[in-house]
Description:
Layout: H1 2-38, H2 42-60, H3 66-93, H4 98-132
Amino acid sequence: MIDHxxxxxxxxxxxxxxxxxxxxLFIGTLNFNNTLISNNDWIQSTILFTIVLVTAVLxxxxxxxxxxxxxxxxxxxxxxxxxxxxxxxLEISSGIPISLVFLHVIKDIMLTFxxxxxxxESLKEMIREKITKPFPVR
Length: 138
């Protein structure tokens, strides 16, 4: 019974990780394509796209090197947190009611929490690898 529960948790975390990567790549590509079409601020868009692409790759590196997965998780959380602050500032300064601002940024708040969970999973995997590592032979 416990094995089945742990297996479900493991599958859920893999789906969360791949979903986060797909979301980051979609948002990065969408932003990059819109900037290329409108032909303004392409340097800033290229930098943002590169950061998002590196974050997605780091999130996927969890399966080979958990330390890089943890860095990717914290970087993704930071990106989503910056998005929440930026969007909140823009919408509040535009005079939009706080309740509507919250409804607009709740997705990014939840994605921040999910990225922290993925970073924690990578840190847990790092500890598990250290604990199960064989002792050096003298």
